[in-house]
Amino acid sequence: MTAFKKLNLTEIVPKGWLRDQLEIQMKGLSGQLYYKWDSVGSYSGWLGGTGDGWERVPYYLDGLIPLSYYLGDQEHMEICQKFLTWTLNSQTQDGNFGPVVTKNDYWSRYCMLKVLLLYHEICQDPRILEFACRYFRYVLQEFPRRPPENWSKARIPELLLCMKYVYEQTKQEWIVEAARKIDSYSLDWVSFMEVLPFPRPSGYYMNWDSIKDYNHSRLDEIVPFHATHIVNVTMGLKHPAMRAFFGEKLNAREINRKGLEQLDRFHGTPSGCINGDEHLSGRDPRQGAELCSVAECMFSLAVMLEQSGDPQMADRLERLAYNALPATITEDFMAHQYLQQANQVQVDVRKRPWYNNRDDASIFGLEPNFGCCTANMHQAWPKFVNALWYRRDENTLVSSVFAPSEVCTQLGDGSVKIELETAYPFRDRLVYHIHQNTCKKLTLLLRVPQWCHGAAVKYNGEPRKYPLEDGFLRVEESFRPGDTLEMVLPMEITYSNWYENSLAVERGPLVYGLDIKERFQQVREVCGFKDYHVYAESPWNYALRKGAEGKWEERPLTGVPFSHSGAPCAIYLPGKLVPQWELQNGNTSDLPAERSFEGAEQMVRLIPYGCTKLRISEFPWYEEEQKQQEERI
């Protein structure tokens, strides 16, 4: 069972700036790849051609399907349907399916099955559920003879998620027992989250230079290759939720929190990223975090939120979506990075301290380092929409993650249609418009984020007090069409400590980064897709005065929500230039350890992390002179 119930993707409509963001995405890479990138084009193995027949098309469709639906884009939905029709017709008598050249691979089938079931939410075609059940039976028969290895072993929680959906749709009890048997073949991510086995960067456990020439399919026999792989880790986060759903007695909420706290402590960054330049790589802000891991972690957090009802999962989901995700993709959605850095002051092709990624992994382009992110990035925003609202029971609707949207769903004995009007996360005001309610009883649960103190609510303009239960305000009113419910979540400038006791600046769900003047330099163009280096044209080596109150500035929200030049808000804080903190082979040198710096203090401008392509987000710091003198005395 789950604490919340995921709504069908057709029941939630993106509005406002979120709709703008999806339109930008479709005009960019998402809408153009099929025509210009052969990995997902008309020669694909998933259309019976000679092209790629592994994970790239399933990855791409996982985002393109909901994106096309939300935008009413028939052209791109028909592209999706070509792949789905071919896939449905490819199933063999034993239940396997897909391109013949990869017929022995399980992982790519988990991924495509997830896509088919996503499409089922739209079309309700019963053939898809029958297709899925035949594949489940195939796997049950095949695993004992040919156990899953490598990606297929590490990513079994994705298959369990498919089984969860089919069980919820059909209530076939054999699926529960089948899921438990299949789970026994999985890499054990539950134990991984209970006690993190890799608190150090992966280089401590695996010397890449000494193993890179081994057969990669056999690496798990000698080193923890797949257990430290960052995308496997972020997919594996949903494993406790899957085990709990299929009846194992465990406290998934507690395991989720413990696992994420450990990953934060040893590999985390202020934006919510888990550092992994292919493999877990520690907290140093010069290490990289992969775009695929951002997208997959967002989706896992949504699954964890549904299963546990834990508002902390919603807090984390917002942190990733509103900071890490937009920061690593250009504003026009035409180029992306494979890796982003928390402290990123130069982007170009050169040797950096990645564990085993290529020298071009941090440039913005079509296919830096490897094409998995080019295919997989498209799911992040569209599937984020489906995490905005949940149902708790027949009478209760949950506003779990905040973005402008509309929900229209059946609840118990009636139907409900509510629109959330907001410029959150850039502003603190949320207004719920009740457009329809035919339910005899309707309860709304409104999340109060952990960072918020003093949430204020008005019902039809009148201040109200509602009980706070497990991080949610419980609102029970006789809701009528035309009613409004307004919630204000006061946002204060706060500080948090990170690598080497560095300082991050936050306000509400947004992390702030130094506003660096960025110069994009085009280095290549193919079929209209451009690769860029990015260079700083203003100083970046600032320390901030710890504890300063700072000044927050509101600016207009434009049609490009996460714009650098049009950033919708900024923070001004006192700081000092630190000349000894220098550029070193395209990265910052080590964070200064001292807490006193010479030079004049000046006001330093910070903008939302998601609006930056170059940034400092983990700052050295100093204290005001009077306090330093008192400590010396």
The residue-averaged pLDDT reads 96
Question: How many β-strands, per DSSP?
Answer: 30
Instruction: Give the percentage of residues in beta strands.
Output: 15-25%
Main pleated sheet: 8 strands, mixed
- Note the overall shape: globular
Radius of gyration in whole Å, from Cα? Answer: 24 Å
Q: How would you describe this structure in keywords?
A:
single chain, 633 residues, alpha+beta, seven-stranded antiparallel β-sheet, 34% helix, 21% strand, globular
Structure description:
The structure is a single chain. With 633 residues, this protein is α+β, with helices and mostly antiparallel strands. Helix content is 34%, strand content 21%. It has 20 helices and 30 strands. Strands 18, 19, 20, 23, 24, 25, 28 and 30 form an eight-stranded mixed sheet that branches. Strands 2-9-10-11-17-13-14 form a seven-stranded antiparallel sheet. The chain has a six-stranded mixed sheet with strand order 1-7-8-12-16-15, with no helix packed on it. β9 (405-411) and β10 form a beta hairpin. α14 (239-245) runs parallel beside α16 (291-308). The longest helix is centred in the first third of the chain and has 20 residues, at 126-145. The chain is globular.
